[in-house]
Structure formats: C-alpha cells, structure tokens
Amino acid sequence: MQLPSNPFKRSLDGTPRYGCWAGFGTGYATEILATTGFDWLLIDGEHAPNTVPSVLAQLQAIAPYAIAPGACAPVVRTVNHDPALIKQLLDIGAQTLMIPMVDTAEQAEKLVAATRYPPHGFRGVGGGLTRATRWDSVEDYLAHAHEELCLVVQVESRTGVDNAEAIAATEGVDAIFVGPVDLSTGVGHAGNPNHPDVQAMIRHTLEVTHAAGKAAGILAPAEADAKRYAQWGFDFIAVGIDISLLRQAAVETIARYKPDTPRPTSSLGY
Ligand SMILES: O=C(O)C(=O)C[C@H](O)[C@@H](O)CO
Predict the structure, then answer these.
(1) Quick count: other Cβ atoms within 10 Å of Cβ 182?
(2) What is the Cα 55 distance to its own chain's centre?
(3) In the Cβ-directed half-sphere of 257, how many Cα atoms lie within 13 Å?
(4) Which atom of ligand 1 is nearest to the CA of 180?
(5) Hey, which of 80, 102, 182, 183 would you mutate to test ligand 1's pocket, going by the most ligand atoms within 8 Å of its Cβ?
(6) 139 and 2 in contact (C-beta within 8 Å)?
(7) Is 7 helix (H, G, I), strand (E, B) or coil?
(8) 3 state DSSP class of 94
(9) What's the number of domains the chain is made of?
(10) Which residues neighbour 131 within 8 Å (Cβ) at sequence distance 6 or greater?
C-alpha cells in the first residue's frame, strides 16, 4: 500500500485551521471530538494522562475521520524531547508531532534527527512491527516516511522567542506552535497572555516563523484571542480544550437549577 498521507501537513495552506485539545486520554472521547468539525486534534502527551497505548487508541479512533474532504487530523504532543519516545510515537503511526519547550535551534535539529532514518538522522527501524509501516505493507517506507511527517516545535519561553528565527529556519521543522500559558508565566505575567509584552513576543514569533516559510500555531480558547490570532495570520489555532468544554458546560447546566453554585474562573487568562 501507499504511505498514508498526512492530513495535517496537507491542510497547512494559509487557511486558518481550527483545532481542539484532546485531554481525556481515551479513544472514545477523542472519537467524539473527531466527529464535530475540528480540523485537528491535539492528543496531549505532555499534561494529559496519556501513554503510548492510549495515544495509539486515539490515533485508531480518529483514523476514519482523518480522510479528506473535511478531515480531522491528529497531532500528538510528547512529554519531552526523548528520542526513544519519539520513535515509539512514530512507530504507532503518529505523523505529526508537537514537541514542547524548544528553546534553541540545536534542540530543534536533534528533534528532526530523531524523526529521520540514517543517514539523515538516528530513528531506529521498527519495520514490520509497526503500525506506521502498516506492518510492512507500505511500499518503501524507509525512503519516504519523512515526506509525510510534520514536526511542530513549541516556543514557550523568552529564550525560545529570542531564538525563534533560528528555530524556524531549522531544516525539517515544519511549524512553530506558541505556548501562551507557559510563555506568559515564564516572563512574569502568569495568567495574562494578553499582556502587551507577551503579545509582542507572540507576534514576533509569528513573523519570523512566516519569514522562514513555516507555519505558525497557537492555543487560544477565548474567542476574541482566536479571532485576533487568525487575523494576524496564524495558520492553526487550538480554540478549545475538551476538558474545559465539559467542565464549562457542566457548571453552566447545574447553575441553571442551582443558581448559588459558585462559578469558578480560569486562572490561565482565557
Ligand atoms: O503554554 C501553553 O499555552 C501550552 O503549551 C498549552 C498548555 O500546555 C495547555 O495545557 C494549557 O491548558
């Protein structure tokens, strides 16, 4: 069979693509999201209770909905930069990886190398053991795998912003995703990603990313933020977090019957 094409990579054509964080760690919840019209889903291995098997279950759950037109594409976020974990996630068939906390071009280069087979990198060969090769039925997987991989690195610190131009220029990096919560927290504006200093850093990162010919993404659960970022030119925007959506709906539902129920506010600035 042919190497499966990567619907996320193919969708990055300058039209804003709207996604949702998938934080429940189950195929069942993520499949529900996949039916709702989001262009992409972030299976979060950094902060959600995910393991390699739970990510696999979610990739399998999304697969029927990841076919054009109207495809819903999976993006998998790792917990760290560990090449062994990256190898496992690629082997189970993740084609788009988002790596948190990338501060330098050197880190970005190592991450690219972790996704490439020798001589272009050091990814180990799983061959017929892996879903990525559809158990060795994909033609010439070793030669072509990288063509359908999409590497998204997160810039979410002052150092990352300072180095964003070099990170974006790194060959093999397809996109930069700004993490506004970590960025604002790290520069002394916890809970206020809309502080003018943070907004200037976000805009700078967007501009240098586009100047390098790469795509830029961001998390913006508040509608006004998402609309502003779309207007600025962000290519992919996470406009919801499933766990928050459930909680908000639950809080609003019970408040209709018990109006005195306290309504907690977000401490994250959205
Ligand atoms: O810094 C950010 O913003 C992100 O990277 C997203 C957060 O990790 C997200 O989990 C906040 O809910």
Answers:
(1) 19
(2) 13
(3) 4
(4) 3
(5) 182
(6) yes
(7) helix
(8) coil
(9) 1
(10) 56, 59, 91, 92, 93
Please report the ipTM that was assigned to this predicted complex. 0.97
Q: Report residue 127 as tokens.
A: 């061959």
Cβ neighbours of 229 (radius 10 Å): 26
Segments forming the whole domain that contains residue 204:
7-257
Instruction: Report yes or no on 1 lying in a domain.
Output: no
Provide the residue-wise pLDDT of the chain in tens; the chain has 270 residues: 999 999 999 999 999 999 999 999 999 999 999 999 999 999 999 999 999 999 999 999 999 999 977 899 999 999 999 999 999 999 999 999 999 999 999 999 999 999 999 999 999 999 999 999 999 999 999 999 999 999 999 999 999 999 999 999 999 999 999 999 999 999 999 999 999 999 999 999 999 999 999 999 999 999 999 999 999 999 999 999 999 999 999 999 999 999 888 777 777 777
Tokens, residue 221: 């659960």
266 domain residue, yes or no: no
- 2 belongs to a structural domain: no
Peptide bond into 69 cis (omega under 30): yes
Nearest residue (CA) to ligand 1, atom 9? 181
Side-chain half-sphere exposure of 210, counting CA atoms within 13 A: 14
Q: Which two tokens stand for residue 109?
A: 């280069």
Ligand 1, CB cutoff 6 Å, lining residues: 47, 154, 156, 179-182, 219, 241
Global pTM exceeds 0.95: yes
Distance CA 270, CA 266 (A): 6
List the CATH number of the domain containing 62: 3.20.20.60
